[in-house]
Specification:
Layout: H1 14-20, H2 47-53, E1 85-96, E2 101-113, E3 140-141, E4 159-172, E5 178-180, E6 182-192, E7 196-205, E8 208-209, E9 212-213, E10 216-223, E11 238-255, E12 258-260, E13 267-268, E14 272-278, E15 291-295, E16 326-328, E17 331-332, H3 342-349, E18 351-354, E19 356-360, E20 364-365
Antiparallel strand pairs: 1-2, 1-19, 1-20, 2-4, 3-4, 4-5, 4-10, 6-7, 7-11, 8-9, 10-11, 11-12, 11-14, 13-17, 14-15, 15-19, 16-18
Length: about 400
């Protein structure tokens, strides 16, 4: 997985923030389950059923205290090695270019599954390292950087250890449980017609396909020292991308204190696409330990050519674009009684290249998602807790020196 809107209060910052990360990293996700996505065992399955369908799963299912709470049926039983899953929070700082506003927000909540199953290719049920120097296992060719001496021979190419991690955004509910798929649902301050103050409710969520919440995905390429030339010291050892699609809906609009009926379906004409890259200039990033992410020009070059390895599953053959700010699509279906207010809403909110910086915190690994107590700390590392969320990052750079 990665919405800029003007605001004058800290609360409004969740507008952009929620959209952009869940980071997170949070942070385009396929609009249908990928061929290589891990099999999801239905809720209510017995432990023996889980063992039959997902060999190697160690997490107990039958006695999960979260069973029956809101959100339980929307989260997978297990997607990752040894039940390595837990809660994570992130913070974000974005710039709404059209309104020239700086926006911050924290916390953004997510359920993170580390090292998603990747073998066998046709129906993954276990995880296998695709690049192990000791075991001499297959490495994925680095899709972003290669030495000038590299040829079509894989032994001349820099290899990477590639893995991915699904993250399900959610909104905690009072009394336990969560609304899975919701990034943000907040009141915001914005500007209409260039100068008139306005307020609205902005709801951001990830799509559902066939009733299933589509997660944000963090991809990680960890470089190994193979190839026809050594890795230069200036080359980041990790490329990480948190990506996904986010639906954006607007309601309860008031312009200069006057209510404006937008109707129930005022939303962007398509989901916003999030591409949040690790930011090595700010610090290291790894899904388990967290770190800085961003979406702005010049942060990452993108892929040199289409992805080319069976470990990419449905992403195989895909080009990943260079880093840039988030594009907020135009709004549609805004207004009632024949009044089309979509152009007005688009003028307030839509636009290209809205830069973002985000910081993901360390994962509190519970070996399940503790919906009965989302503030639960890691039992093995009691000081690793989802709260407090990371401090807000610095303001991201604007494109083309804008505002300088």
């Amino acid at each position: 997985m990665r919405i800029p809107h003007p605001r004058s209060s800290a609360r409004t910052g969740r507008v952009v923030v929620g959209v952009l990360l869940l980071a997170g990293t949070l942070m385009a996700i396929p609009t249908s389950p990928a061929t290589g996505d891990p099999e999801v065992v239905p809720r209510g399955a017995s432990q023996s059923d889980v063992k039959d369908q997902l060999p190697g799963v160690t997490a107990l299912i039958a006695d999960n205290p979260a069973d029956g709470l809101p959100g339980f049926d929307d989260l997978p039983v297990n997607l990752s090695i040894s039940g390595s899953e837990g809660t994570v929070t992130s913070s974000q700082h974005a710039v709404a270019r059209r309104s020239k506003m700086s926006i911050t927000s924290r916390p953004i909540w997510g359920a993170l599954y580390l090292f998603a199953y990747n073998t066998p290719f046709d129906k993954p049920t276990t995880f296998k390292s695709p690049c192990n120097n000791f075991l001499k296992t297959h490495c994925v060719s680095d899709p972003f950087y290669q030495p000038s001496c590299a040829t079509d021979d894989p032994t001349t190419q820099w290899g990477t250890f590639y893995f991915r991690n699904p993250m399900y955004p959610f909104k905690p509910l009072k009394g336990g449980g969560a609304e899975v798929g919701i990034l943000s649902e907040d009141s915001i301050n914005l500007v209409a017609f260039g100068s008139i103050p306005a307020t609205a409710t902005l709801t951001m969520s990830v799509p559902r396909v066939n009733g299933k919440v589509q997660p944000l995905i963090s991809h990680v390429w960890q470089r190994m020292g193979r190839g026809c030339a050594p890795l230069p010291s200036t080359l980041p050892r990790v490329s990480a991308l948190v990506e996904g699609e986010v639906n954006i809906q607007l309601s309860d609009l008031e312009i200069d204190g006057v209510p404006v009926d937008l109707g129930p379906r005022c939303r962007t004409e398509r989901p916003a696409e999030l591409y949040l890259w690790n930011d090595p200039a700010t610090g290291p990033y790894f899904p388990a330990s967290g770190g800085p992410l961003g979406a702005f020009d010049g942060l990452h070059p993108g892929s040199r050519a289409p992805l080319n390895d069976p470990y990419y599953f449905e992403d195989n053959g895909r080009n990943i674009p260079p880093s840039s700010g988030v594009l907020i699509p135009p709004f549609v279906n805004c207004g009632t009684g024949g009044d089309d207010l979509s152009p007005v809403v688009s003028a307030m909110a839509s636009g290209p290249n809205n830069p973002v910086r985000a910081t993901q915190g360390e994962v509190s690994i519970i070996n399940r998602i503790p919906l009965e107590d989302l503030n639960m700390c890691d039992p093995q590392r009691p000081k690793v807790c989802p709260l407090p969320a990371p401090e807000k990052p610095s303001m991201p750079p604007l494109p083309d020196g804008e505002g300088q």
